[in-house]
Amino acid sequence: ILQNVAIGKKFNEGATQIDATQEMIALGAVNLVGSGFFDAIPCCASFSRSSVNASSGAKSHVSALIGGFLMVLSLAFLTPYFEYIPKASLASIIIAAVIFMVDFGAIIRLWKFSSTALNCL
């Protein structure tokens, strides 16, 4: 729940206020219906997918639907070729997508304050 609220606040453009109670109810309902009735994996928000959508300029939820559709197509037809992609390349793609979310100023302030506080990060 905390992750969903944090992602909502990070990518909210000030249009609406994020209500944690509403997020909790929605997440609980989705997981109850999906996991309980359809034996699906429990769902939650993802920083990497949200940051890719935000950095590409997506403004509506249609971009998530298109991304999901393209992912299903790529898994259906390109899975044999994914074996040849090095894991380091995949990791670098994810890092490049989420690097702008790191607050380096906060890390430097923690380092100056206490190195043990930085270790807790």
From TrEMBL:
<dbReference type="Pfam" id="PF00916">
    <property type="entry name" value="Sulfate_transp"/>
</dbReference>
<keyword id="KW-1133">Transmembrane helix</keyword>
<feature type="transmembrane region" description="Helical">
    <location>
        <begin position="88"/>
        <end position="111"/>
    </location>
</feature>
<feature type="transmembrane region" description="Helical">
    <location>
        <begin position="62"/>
        <end position="82"/>
    </location>
</feature>
<keyword id="KW-0472">Membrane</keyword>
<protein>
    <recommendedName>
        <fullName>SLC26A/SulP transporter domain-containing protein</fullName>
    </recommendedName>
</protein>
<dbReference type="GO" id="GO:0055085">
    <property type="term" value="P:transmembrane transport"/>
</dbReference>
<feature type="domain" description="SLC26A/SulP transporter">
    <location>
        <begin position="2"/>
        <end position="115"/>
    </location>
</feature>
<keyword id="KW-0812">Transmembrane</keyword>
<dbReference type="InterPro" id="IPR001902">
    <property type="entry name" value="SLC26A/SulP_fam"/>
</dbReference>
<dbReference type="GO" id="GO:0016020">
    <property type="term" value="C:membrane"/>
</dbReference>
<dbReference type="InterPro" id="IPR011547">
    <property type="entry name" value="SLC26A/SulP_dom"/>
</dbReference>
